[in-house]
Write a structure and sequence with these properties.
Number of helices: 3
Distance between the termini: 12 Å
Number of strands: 7
Shape: globular
Number of domains: 1
CATH superfamily: Gcn5-related N-acetyltransferase (GNAT)
């Protein structure tokens, strides 16, 4: 089941060992009452939003829910992810993302962040009905 709320944000925050600073929205997957994955979406700038992800078992439903919220509900053209982990960068590339650069020392002294941008047109989990800039009458995830 796709869920939203503070319990999803806490799951991501505790899993990545960092604090949260509102405003943000959190979207995740719950199985048998347990959150198994989640994203925090924040730093919304109209055309772009930052995505922080944590968890496992990333299925089509959660990937579509993220795409619908970011690209349809918010109307963003892109989402941005920054990671220090090569495996996460490769996963973001599988979503349709491209490496755009490095943020030196982003995660502390000597620990760089890989910047990945995912454009609406390249996101592989956007429902077909929303491709090409079409808008839906869908409600926000969990709403």
């Amino acid at each position: 089941m796709i869920v939203t709320g503070e319990h999803v944000a806490r799951f991501v925050s505790e899993g990545l060992h960092f604090g949260l600073c509102p405003p943000y929205i959190a979207i995740g997957t719950e199985v048998d009452g347990t959150i198994i994955n989640g994203v925090i979406l924040n730093h919304y700038e109209g055309e772009d939003i930052c995505v922080t992800a944590y968890g496992s078992r990333w299925g089509r439903r959660i990937m579509e829910a993220i795409g619908v919220y970011v690209f349809d509900m918010l109307g963003c053209e892109r989402m941005t992810m920054v990671t220090q982990h090569e495996g996460v960068a490769k996963l973001a590339e599988k979503l349709g993302g491209a490496r755009e650069g490095v943020m030196r020392g982003h995660f502390g002294k000597g620990v760089d962040g890989i910047i990945i941008g995912v454009l609406r047109d390249d996101y592989r989990y956007l429902p077909e009905a929303l491709r090409g800039g079409a808008r839906s009458d869908m409600v926000a995830p969990g709403g």
